[in-house]
């Protein structure tokens, strides 16, 4: 039986004016100089400093839903990276969002690759992951 408590907690802590969110994988998300400030609508909003769309350092506004999205997307990245490690015997040509493009030995089936990609790291033990794939001589979007 898998403890859901173990899989739903992230650790939030501030140190030296930096907010750290420790992901289940152990990796940290970092928000520099977080503050709660009034936004342009006159209500409270979470802000932090970072590189904006103009590629300059600026204060950026966010909200709890966006921080939740960052945690989820970062966890998905960590799972994809783990899959890349399990496929280290294949030549990973590229990644496109949540896809891996690999060159593998012709004796390796798509099912074998999907099975390896569905493996979970220890920190995601008990998660029911699944991968889909296809074989092609050239890249195409599925």
Q: Report the order of strands and helices.
A: HEEEEEHEEH
State the distance separating the first and last CA atoms. Answer: 35 Å
Contiguous uncertain segments of 5+ residues: 1-7
SS-based structural class?
alpha+beta
Give the % helix. 25-40%
Strand order of the largest sheet: 1-2-3-4-5
Number of strands: 7
> So how many helices?
3
Please, what is the oligomeric state? single chain
**Percent of residues in beta strands:** 25-35%
Overall mean pLDDT score? 88
| Largest sheet: number of strands, sense, barrel closure | 5 strands, antiparallel
Shape: elongated
- Integer tally of domains: 1
Secondary structure: elements and pairs:
Layout: H1 4-8, E1 11-15, E2 18-22, E3 28-38, E4 44-51, E5 57-62, H2 64-86, E6 91-96, E7 99-103, H3 110-117
Antiparallel strand pairs: 1-2, 2-3, 3-4, 4-5, 6-7
List keywords for this structure.
two-stranded antiparallel sheet; 32% strand; 25% helix; 142 residues; alpha+beta; single chain; five-stranded antiparallel β-sheet; elongated
Walk me through what this model shows:
By secondary structure, this protein is α+β, with helices and mostly antiparallel strands. The chain has one domain (4-124). 25% of the residues lie in helices and 32% in strands. It contains 3 helices and 7 strands; from the N terminus they run H-E-E-E-E-E-H-E-E-H. It has a 5-stranded antiparallel beta sheet, covered by helices on one side. A hairpin with a 5-residue loop joins strand 4 and strand 5 (57-62). The two termini are 35 Å apart. The model is unreliable at 1-7 (pLDDT under 50).
């Amino acid at each position: 039986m898998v403890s859901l408590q173990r899989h739903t907690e992230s650790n939030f802590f501030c140190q030296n004016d930096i907010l750290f969110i420790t992901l289940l994988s152990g990796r940290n998300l970092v928000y520099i100089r977080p503050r709660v400030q009034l936004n342009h609508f006159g209500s409270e909003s979470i802000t932090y400093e970072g590189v904006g769309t103009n590629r300059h350092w600026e204060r950026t506004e966010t909200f709890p839903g966006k921080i939740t999205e960052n945690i989820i997307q970062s966890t998905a990245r960590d799972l994809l990276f783990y899959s890349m490690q399990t496929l280290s015997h294949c030549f990973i040509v590229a990644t496109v969002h949540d896809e891996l493009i690999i060159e593998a030995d012709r004796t390796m089936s798509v099912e074998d690759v999907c099975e390896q990609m569905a493996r979970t790291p220890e920190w995601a033990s008990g998660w029911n992951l699944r991968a889909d794939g296809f074989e092609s001589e050239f890249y195409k979007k599925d």
